[in-house]
Amino acid sequence: MPSKKGIVRELIQQRYSYLFIAPCVILFSVFVFIPVIASFFLGFTKYNVINPPQWVGLDNYRQILFHDPRFWKALRNTGFYVLGVVPIGIWISLLLAVAIDQKVRFKNFYKAIFFMPVVTSVIAVSVIWKWLFAGEKYGLINYWLMKFGAKPIDWVMSPTWTLPAIMIMSIWAGLGYNMILILAGLQTIPKTLYEAAEIDGAGDWHKFWHITLPLLRPTLLFVVIMSAINSFQVFEQVYVMTGGTGKGVGGVLDCALSLVAYLYERGFERFDMGYASAIAYVLFGIIFIITLFNLKVVRSRQFEY
Amino acid sequence: MMKIKKNLGRYIAYVILTVGALTMAIPYVWMIITSIKPIEEIQGYPPSFYVHHPTFMPYQELFSILPMWRYLFNSFFVASLVTICNVFFCSLAGYAFAKHKFFGRDKIFLLLLSAIMIPYQVNLIPGFIIVKNLGWLNSFYSLIIPNMAMVFGVFLCRQYIMSIPNDLFDVAKIDGCSEFTIYRIIIFPLIKPALATLAIFTFLSQWNSFVWPLIVIHTSTMRTVPLALSVLNSQFGANFSMVMAGATVVTLPVLIIFLCLQKYIIQGITMTGLKG
C-alpha cells in the first residue's frame, strides 16, 4: 500500500494518461452519464421545461402502468413489431447467408447489394417504401398485388396495415446486417465436419440441420438479441410512415405508435418531460433485460470458439 | 448423379440470391426512376420502369424550394468534424487504456463500456435540457459536441492498440520521446486500419443521424439532409418525384462511399457486431 504522498506522486507521473482520456471521459460524463441519472430523477417529476420540475413521486409510473391506454397500445404495437421482424428477418437472413456460403460467384456483389439499406438513412428508406406502398393506382406494390389477382391495400392510411407495412420495410432493411453476422458465424464452422458427414452419407438437409444449425446457435442467439434491441427502439420508420397524415406520430388510431414514438410525442411535442423520462426508463428496463441475456450469450460464445 | 445433386444446391443458391438481390435493388431503382419522371408519367397507369421523357425538374424544384446546398453543407460539415474528433479522441483514450498503467484505469474503462448498454432514448430528454441551457439549440454546437466521442470508438482503438507489442515504444521512451510524440509517430500510424473503420462508421452514422437533430434543430437553415427529407415528406408528400429526388440526394453520397469502402465496413461489422 503506497503512502498518500506516493499516490500523489504517481498521479502526477500519470498526468499524460489522464490527459489522454480526459476528452472522452468529460464528453461521456456530460452527455451520457449525467443524463442517465438526470433522466432517472426526472421520471419522478412533472416538468414542462418552462417551470422548474415538480416532485410527484411514483405518479408517472403509476399513470403509465395503470391508467395510460396509449402506453399499452404502444407497448403492444412494439411487441408485435419485434415478434414479427426479428424471427422473419433472421430466417430470411439465414437463408441468404447459407446461399452465399455455397461456392457461388460474385459473393462480394451480393454482399454489397444486401448491405446497401444498412448504410442508407432510415428516413430515405422509409420515404422510398412509403412511395412503394402508396395509393391504389400508382404505387408499385399495389400494382403488383393487383397483377397477381389480389386486392390493393391501403397500406399507409388504414389502421390494420400501417404497422405490417413498417414491418415489411424493416425486415428488408435489416437483412444485410443480420446476414453479415450470420455469414461470419458460418465461416467459423470447420469444413472437416461437413466432409466427415459426407463420408457418412449425410445429405445437404441433414448437414444443415445437424451441423450448421447447432454450431450456429451462439451466433444466431447473438443476432436475435441485437435485432430485438434494435427493433424495440423503432421510431424513424413510424415517424415517416405516419408523417403528413395529420394524425400525430402514431398514425390513424395510434395504429403504428411505437414506444419511442410515444416517448417522442410526450417529450418533444407536448413537453411532458417528466412523463417521457419515465417512459424512457421503462424502455431502458426492457432493453436491460434483453442485454443481460446478451451478456450471457456473449460469454457462452467465447467458450465455444 | 453426384455432380447434378451438388450443382443443384448451387443453382438453388443462385435463384435465392438473385431474387433477394432484385428485392434489394428495386426500391433504389424505383427511387431514381421516380425522381426523373415528369408528373404525367407518375400518375400514368400502369406504373412503368421506363421513363419516356426524363427530366431534372424534380431536382430543380427541390433545390429551389429548400436550401438544399446549405443542408448538404450542414450535414457534410457536422459529419466531417465529428469524424475527425472521434478519430482523435478515441485513439488517444484507447492508447491510454491499452498501454498506460494508471490509477483506476480498469474501473473507468468498464464504466465507459457500460454506456453501450444504455439506449440513446434515455439520454434524449436530459441531453436536450443540457443543450438548451448551454444555449446550443439550433447551432452546430449541439450537433457536433455531444457526438465528439463514441464508446464504440474507444473500445475499438483499445482492442487494436493492445495487439501492438510494447517493445516498439519502450525504445522510444528510452530515447526520451514524450507520451504525445509516441502517440503521434508510433501509435497513430500503426492503428490506421482501425481508425479507417472508425472514421467510416462515424461519418455514415452522423450523415444518417435523425433523432438528435430532430430534437435540437428547429430553425430551417440549420437542418441536416435527413431532417430536410422528413420535412419534404410531411409537407410535400404528394409530390412523389420531388421527395424521391430528395431521397436520392441523401442516399447517393453514402452509397458511393459504401461501394468504395465496402471491405472496411463489412469487416468492421463482423469485428464488432455494431451497426453504423
Key features of this structure:
heterodimer; A: 305 residues; mainly alpha; MetI-like fold; 2 domains; two-stranded antiparallel ribbon; 13 helices; 2 strands; B: 276 residues; 14 helices
**Termini separation of chain B:** 46 Å
Q: From the alpha-carbon coordinates, what is the Rg of chain A to the nearest angstrom? A: 25 Å
* CATH level-four homologous superfamily name of the largest domain in chain B: MetI-like
What is the N-to-C succession of helices and strands of chain A? HHEEHHHHHHHHHHH
Structural class of chain B: mainly alpha
* CATH topology type of the largest domain in chain B: MetI-like fold
- What is the averaged pLDDT score of chain A? 87
Report the sheet-strand fraction of chain B.
Answer: under 5%
Q: Regarding CATH, which class of the largest domain in chain B?
A: Mainly Alpha
The tally of strands of chain B reads 0
Number of domains of chain B: 2
What form of chain A results from the Cα inertia axes?
flat
Name of the CATH superfamily of the largest domain in chain A: MetI-like
Biggest β-sheet: strands ordered side by side in the sheet of chain A: 1-2
Q: Please report the number of helical segments of chain B.
A: 14
Largest sheet of chain B: none
H and E string of chain B: HHHHHHHHHHHHHH
CATH architecture title of the largest domain in chain A: Orthogonal Bundle
What this model shows, in words?
The complex is a heterodimer of chains A (305) and B (276). Chain A is an all-alpha fold and 305 residues long. Chain A has two domains: 39 residues, no CATH class; 237 residues, MetI-like (MetI-like fold). In chain A, 74% of the residues lie in helices and 1% in strands. Chain A is built from 13 helices and two strands, in the order H-H-E-E-H-H-H-H-H-H-H-H-H-H-H. In chain A, a hairpin with a 7-residue loop joins strand 1 and strand 2. In chain A, helix 8 runs antiparallel to helix 11. Chain A starts with a helix and ends with a helix. The mean pLDDT of chain A is 87. With 276 residues, chain B is an all-alpha fold. Chain B has two domains: 55 residues; 217 residues, MetI-like (MetI-like fold), CATH 1.10.3720. In chain B, helix 1 packs across helix 14, helix 3 packs across helix 14 and helix 4 runs antiparallel to helix 11. The model of chain B has no long low-confidence stretch (mean pLDDT 89). The chains are: A mainly alpha (305), B mainly alpha (276). At the A-B interface, helix 1, helix 2, helix 4, helix 5 and helix 6 of A face helix 1, helix 4, helix 5, helix 6 and helix 10 of B.
